[in-house]
Design a protein that fits this description.
Strand order of the largest sheet: 2-3-1-9-8-10
CATH architecture of the largest domain: 4-Layer Sandwich
CATH topology of the largest domain: Glutamine Phosphoribosylpyrophosphate, subunit 1, domain 1
Oligomer: single chain
Structural class: alpha+beta
CATH class of the largest domain: Alpha Beta
Helix content: 40-55%
Number of helices: 30
Length: 631
């Protein structure tokens, strides 16, 4: 695991100097404190910081082929590198290290650009072919590892985070906020790929590679979901097929976990007490026959938010070597301003706070953890997937009845008002957007200042969703699988995986996600919706696969998101921090929000009339982000 950065100049004699590589490396040293390396020749400069996981002694980067004509800097893990190494050695390639990174340069020599399709893992890397003066930037299938790029001074500049791009003087001098994407952040809780909050700085989409050659830049996909459904649309499946798919799911998942145990350093796991992480630990235990180090986080004096009793139960059941971290309000009071420097591509997700703390906690004993991200997006775990099945029932109601429901139910407070709004939208993209919003559309309209109001009148946040919706047309997905696909392309890489990467790498910890092996993803999307959501039970087939390995009460627990007690803490311990930021002159002068509406929202929250903690956290994050990256 590493941080990578660099540049390639479109024309000889441009202005970027080799010394800028050191500044870029310094900006991402937290991603790899064990080592750093540089390559500069002709128009290209590559740099990296290394967190040593495989071949600790000899895996220094950049790494080249035998002749020194192909070079790479690499972030992530290639889980099938030994298999590929065997093929390449038979073809005559000579290796100097046992590192998975070295496989990249030899595979490129052997197979050309098609070598990317042979890789299994999580990765973002740059490869320079000196002979053909070609740079490749590559991001893994589902976007576990990030990769950003921009153009300046006649060069393409790239990095694992946005910070190394900002270390280039011209990029820093010309940085500007993209207000359209600020609207997206305040709507979706994240900025969808390929955009960021910075004008001109972009994210390479998952499953794509970028080529720079002869002054031209092209972006191409190397992976898309195969269109091979297990059952033709509109057809049912048999019980025998369901049993067969359940066993295939178990085998594929266990194989993914086994592959991702690859490391020359200690490996542990995050254990929330939910089914997803519990099954990860069960698979690790089953295949290693040893006690797995597991880590959980709880909150002091906040019983409604603590799930430690469940993580303790599964830890006892699996006999893991379990550790727990208790988080209090004072820890977050100190952490919120500190952590923002790692959120150059911010997400409005308070879970980043305890996730960072538990990452630091785990890093004291291990360098690698396995996590449970991805299961919900593959198998239908979120409540909105289940609720959306009522769409046809709502549409069948008489118009007068639909109008009177909000009146009879006290105007339906959030999140029920949000659900009612979603179920009244015919267009699936608009319905998906309604399910996913940070807050109600009318709430944001009331809150928005001149800058955001202009974008609300002239921009469409759902443009990205509409594009993905159109791309998915040939799959002939039903509503559930289409919702899952939209989340696979947006929410998963831009929010969840962004959060996991930033918090773990800020702690110099590698986080792996076995549910997101691309072969397992392909299998999941070949399954019919009827085995994902069955009788209102989400992740039905995954629960069947897990039944042999973890207790039924863990499997059948009602899903509860990783909630952070910001609501009560904003009313008490974190109130001074919140008010200091939201009443500051700098916040007022940004022009994004109406101060009288912000104050009204604060008062509603403090009085307990409404719980606005997520939106208040978003406002707080926007201001701190500006102070860190713009001012």
């Amino acid at each position: 695991m590493c941080g990578i950065a660099g540049f390639v100049q479109f024309k000889p004699g441009q202005t970027l100097k080799p010394s800028v590589l050191q500044d870029m490396t310094a900006a991402i040293r937290h991603r790899g404190p064990d080592d750093e390396g540089y390559y500069h020749k002709g128009p290209v400069g590559l740099c990296m910081t290394r967190l040593s996981i495989v071949d600790l002694a000899h895996g220094t980067q950049p790494i080249s082929n035998e002749r020194g004509t192909v070079w790479t800097v690499f972030n992530g893990e290639i889980y099938n590198h030994k298999e590929l190494r065997g093929e390449l050695e038979k073809a005559g390639h000579q290796f100097r290290t046992q590192s998975d990174t070295e496989v990249i340069v030899h595979a490129y020599e052997e197979y050309g650009d098609d070598f990317i399709k042979k890789l299994r893992g999580m990765f973002a890397f740059a490869l320079w072919d000196q002979t053909f003066q070609k740079l490749l930037l590559v991001r893994d299938h589902v976007g576990v590892k990030p990769l950003y790029y921009t153009t300046a001074d006649g060069s393409l500049i790239f990095g694992s985070e946005i910070k190394p791009l900002l270390a280039v003087p011209t990029v820093a001098k010309n940085k500007k906020v993209d207000v359209k994407q600020m609207l997206a952040l305040m709507t979706l809780q994240y900025v969808p790929t390929p955009d960021t909050l910075f004008k001109g700085i972009r994210k390479l989409p998952a499953g794509h590679y970028l080529i720079v050659q002869q002054g031209k830049m092209v972006i191409k996909p190397f992976w898309t979901l195969p269109n091979e459904p297990k059952v033709a649309p509109g057809h049912s499946h048999t019980r025998a097929q369901e049993n067969e798919w359940t066993e295939e799911l178990r085998l594929r998942f266990f194989a993914s976990v086994k592959e991702q145990l690859m490391a020359d350093v200690p490996v542990g796991a995050f254990l929330s007490g939910g089914m997803d992480s519990s099954l990860v630990v069960a698979a690790m235990t089953h295949q290693t026959q040893r006690r797995i180090k597991t880590y959980s986080v709880g909150f002091e004096n906040e019983h409604d938010f603590n799930e430690l009793k469940y993580s303790q139960k599964i830890a006892r059941f699996l006999n893991s070597d379990h550790r727990e971290l208790m988080v209090n309000a004072q820890m977050l009071n100190d952490l919120i301003p500190r952590l923002v420097k790692y959120q150059d591509d911010p997400v409005i997700d308070p879970a980043v706070l305890p996730t960072f703390l538990v990452s630091l906690f785990a890093r004291q004993e291990v360098k690698v953890v396995l996590t449970g991200e991805g299961a919900d997006e593959l198998f239908g775990g979120y409540h909105r997937y289940s609720y959306d099945r009522f769409f046809n029932h709502v549409q069948a109601m008489p118009t007068w009845a639909r109008k009177i429901v909000p009146f009879l139910t006290g105007n339906l407070r959030d999140p029920y008002h949000q659900a009612w709004q979603a179920l009244n939208k015919h267009d699936l993209v608009k319905r998906h957007l309604a399910w996913s919003r940070l807050c109600l559309e009318e709430t944001l309209e009331e809150l928005a200042g001149d800058k955001l109001l202009y974008e609300m009148e002239n921009s469409k946040v759902e443009e990205t969703l509409e594009r993905i919706f159109a791309e998915a047309e040939h799959y002939k997905f039903d509503n559930l699988n289409l919702m899952l696909y939209l989340d696979l392309k947006t929410w998963l890489p831009d929010d969840l995986l962004n959060k996991v990467d930033r918090t773990s790498m800020a702690a110099s910890l590698e986080a792996r996600v076995p549910y997101l092996d691309h072969r397992l993803v392909e299998f999941a999307y070949s399954l019919p919706s009827s085995v994902k959501l069955k009788g209102g039970i989400g992740k039905y087939i995954l629960k069947r696969a897990a039944a042999k390995y973890i207790p039924r009460d863990i499997i059948n627990r009602r899903k509860k998101g990783f909630a952070v007690p910001l609501g009560p803490w904003f009313r008490k311990e974190l109130k001074p921090l919140l008010l200091d930021i939201l009443r500051s002159d700098s916040f007022k002068q940004r022009g994004y929000f109406k101060m009288d509406q912000v104050e009204a929202m604060v008062q509603e929250h403090m009085s307990g009339q409404q719980d606005h903690h997520l939106l208040l956290y978003g406002l707080l994050l926007v201001e701190l982000w500006h102070r860190e990256f713009i001012d």
